[in-house]
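Notebook entry, structure prediction.
Reason for the run: the old model in the group folder had no record of what sequence produced it. Starting over properly, with the input documented here first.
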Amino acid sequence: MPKKHQGSVPLKHSFEQAHRWLSLNSINDLVTARGERFQAVAYTAGKGPHQGKKVIRFLKKDLEFARAYECCWGHTTNCNKTRIEVYSAAIDAAM
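New structure, fully documented this time:
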């Protein structure tokens, strides 16, 4: 099982830049390098240990399958040990 914040992903843009870009774009339909379609949405966490912190939610068919907080950005896995690198990279490339 992957560890929290495992590995690193070279990204050109910061989490703050990505969050702001997603906030300003109403349509956030993105595609990974392997052709996997997903949506990314900028939010602020409403509960839990990250309450009040900015978060980028990754969605497929309006269902969240992963999320990234600032501490997760640039890592292979997020706080929940979910692999997020291809989704972060797709956002970074789209910007």
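Summary: The chain has a mean pLDDT of 94.
The old model has been moved to the deprecated folder.
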